[in-house]
Amino acid sequence: MHHNTHNLEKLGQKSAAGLGHAGFQLVALLHSAPFLYLLSEITGIWNLLPDPYMHGAGYSIIPPKGKFDVHIDSNADLTSGLIRRLALIIYLNEDWSPEYGGQLELWNEDASRKVAEIEPAFNRTMLMEISETSYHGIKPVVEPSGRSRYSFMAYYNTSGKALGKEMGVHSSVYAPECYRPRPSVRSLARRFTPPIVYDFVREKIK
After folding, report:
1. How far is 104 from 6, CA to CA, in rounded Å?
2. Helix or strand or coil: residue 49?
3. I want to staple 156 with a disulfide (CB 3.0 to 4.6 A). Which of 24, 26, 40, 86 is the partner?
4. CB–CB of 104/126 below 8 Å?
5. Parallel, antiparallel, or unpaired: how do β-strands 104-107 and 136-138 relate?
6. Least confidently predicted of 49-63, 68-82, 185-199
7. Segment (H or E) for 202
């Protein structure tokens, strides 16, 4: 996929019509009946419905130092009343190296252990089921020249019963604080110790 950085800066679009020519053509493919059938063949989830209004989807930008803590996605589109089932992500980062950060982290079902990392390499596509155990997060972006991390996302839904509290409908749910990475003793010491003292002590204990 080719992209135009100008279009990537346009957030909060209400439909594919505002995504520029490349974005519009991409959404036409991602929302087409043959592609929906392919997704169902891959996942075993049938009767998938696209979201023509692109709620929470489209181009995504994570700026330098940006990240996402470990969480599960919203399980419903509260505007249409449909149940979210799949998220498809296409990465748009040319010449991206692992040391630039921004990796998608996949965690186990109770968010206590990271099980995989996905590099946001250019044109790599990630398909993820949305469930109550699909915990994931994004590592901080540290690209040295100050570039942001770009991606394109589409959601796929199925119809369900009327939404309500009895169904457990929720927005994004973040993992318990105890599961999030904690700063090390060394990082805390460096944060709160004057540089001249920290450097002196570090030299002494080498």
Report:
1. 24
2. strand
3. 86
4. yes
5. antiparallel
6. 185-199
7. helix 195-205
